[in-house]
Amino acid sequence: METKEIKAEELDPEKFIEEKVEEIRSIVGDAKAIVALSGGIDSSAATMLGHRGLSDRLRVVFIDNGLMRDGEPEQVASTFKELGVHVEIIDAQEEFFEALSGITDPEEKREAITQTFYKKVFGRLVRESGARFLLQGTILTDIEETMAGIKRQHNILEQLGIDTEKEYGYEVIEPLRQLRKDGVRKLAKALGLPESIWNRMPFPGPALAARIIGEVTPEKIEIVRKATAIVEEELKYGGAFQYMAILHLDRVTGMKAGKRAFGLQIEIRCWESIDAREATPTKLPFDALEKLAQRITTEVPGVVSVTYNITPKPPSTMEAI
Ligand code: XMP
Q1: Which of 123, 268, 297, 320 is the most buried (most CB within 10 A)?
Q2: Where are the alpha helices (H) located in 105-155, listed in sequence order?
Q3: Measured between alpha carbons, how far is 306 from 290 in angstroms, rounded to an integer?
Q4: Does the beta carbon of 318 lie inside 6 Å of ligand 1?
Q5: Pocket lining: 205 vs ligand 1, CB cutoff 6 Å
Q6: Three-state DSSP class for 242?
Q7: Angle at which helices 106-115 and 93-100 pack, to 10 degrees?
Q8: Helix H or strand E segment including 218
């Protein structure tokens, strides 16, 4: 497929949709294709193009790695149901937690998640389904970052370390590879995707595991998931670029129900940014911070301390790992 850039301002979404739908149809022919939908804007747009071109011959799966936010798999499936797309939720939670067990190094955690996704879970699904084509929402920035060695997780061929066509008999289709994020946003609107998708806050591939210092366990995910839901609820109308809750490894002495408790610490981060390459902490009103501290310490079991990050990126990064 073509890799010449189409700038957002040059993009005629209707014409692009027509061309790509036709292209997907002609490549896939009578065969079957599969797509792993995450609910992010890129995989959502790729899924819609594939659905328009292939209808039931496209199998749409959402891989539940156990690291997603509260209710996320069901929300994504129900959003797509309204658009006439059936999403299968694949429960792979155990496999991911098993792969993460005992790992504390940030890069090793990321690697364990990537390998479990591409090599184990998705590889198995593709083989089982007999799909010959894999639809991916790779965009131009992903290709450039992969080639520059900044980020590799989007290059599925490299992740698998094999020639997929030769090994598994499937080919990768990347209909968005000429676009950047702003172009995909324009396309997503034209494809009828709701604002909750095209205007979605960025969320990292390693999901909530990127927000736990130290080993990732189901219990720690549950804590950070609860804190995340509160932070998102309280800050969603503020218009910040991204906001999150992080679970620290260190404990501190606090008080719960009048008794000494050696409890957990949650750090809140809220960012102003254009493209996530640099970012500054939002100057949140103190009232909002106090409400967050009050809610998190009462609603999330075991938490006795809430802090707010006041360091810009760099030297901080946006996520904790
Ligand atoms: P950092 O933490 O690197 O994050 O300052 C910058 C932006 O990228 C998101 N992020 C990721 N996105 N896969 C992704 O697709 C990842 O592995 C990943 N890690 C971080 C992060 O949420 C922020 O918006």
Answers
A1: 268
A2: 106-115, 123-129, 140-147
A3: 9
A4: yes
A5: yes
A6: strand
A7: 150
A8: helix 218-235
How large is the greatest C-alpha to C-alpha distance in the chain, in angstroms? 69
Nearest CA to ligand 1 atom 7: 276
> Measured from the CB, is residue 317 less than 6 Å from ligand 1?
yes
Amino acid at 277: R
Instruction: Write out the two tokens for 293.
Output: 């501290």
Q: What is the 3-state secondary structure (H, E, C) of the chain?
A: CCCCCCCHHHCCHHHHHHHHHHHHHHHHCCCCEEEECCCCHHHHHHHHHHHHHHHHHEEEEEEECCCCCCCHHHHHHHHHHHCCCCEEEEECHHHHHHHHCCCCCHHHHHHHHHHHHHHHHHHHHHHHHCCCEEECCCCHHHHHHHHCCCCCCCCHHHHHCCCHHHHCCCEEECCCCCCCHHHHHHHHHHCCCCHHHHCCCCCCCCHHHHHECCCCCHHHHHHHHHHHHHHHHHHCCCCCCEEEEEECCCCEEEEECCEEEEEEEEEEEEEECCCCCCEEECCCCHHHHHHHHHHHHHHCCCEEEEEECCCCECCCCCCCC
Residue whose pair of structure tokens reads 């800050």 in the numeric block: 235
Helix (H, G, I), strand (E, B) or coil at 302: coil
Assess whether pLDDT exceeds 60 at residue 80.
yes
Judged against a pLDDT cut of 50, whether residue 141 lies above it is answered with yes
> Helical H runs in 63-122?
72-82, 93-100, 106-115
Cα separations (Å) of 4 from 18, 20, 57, 304? 18, 14, 28, 53
Q: What does pLDDT average to over the chain?
A: 92
Counting from 1 in the atom list of ligand 1, the atom nearest the Cα of 279 is 5
Q: Is the pLDDT of residue 161 over 80?
A: no
Distances (CA, A) of 278 to 36, 61, 148, 227: 30, 33, 19, 25
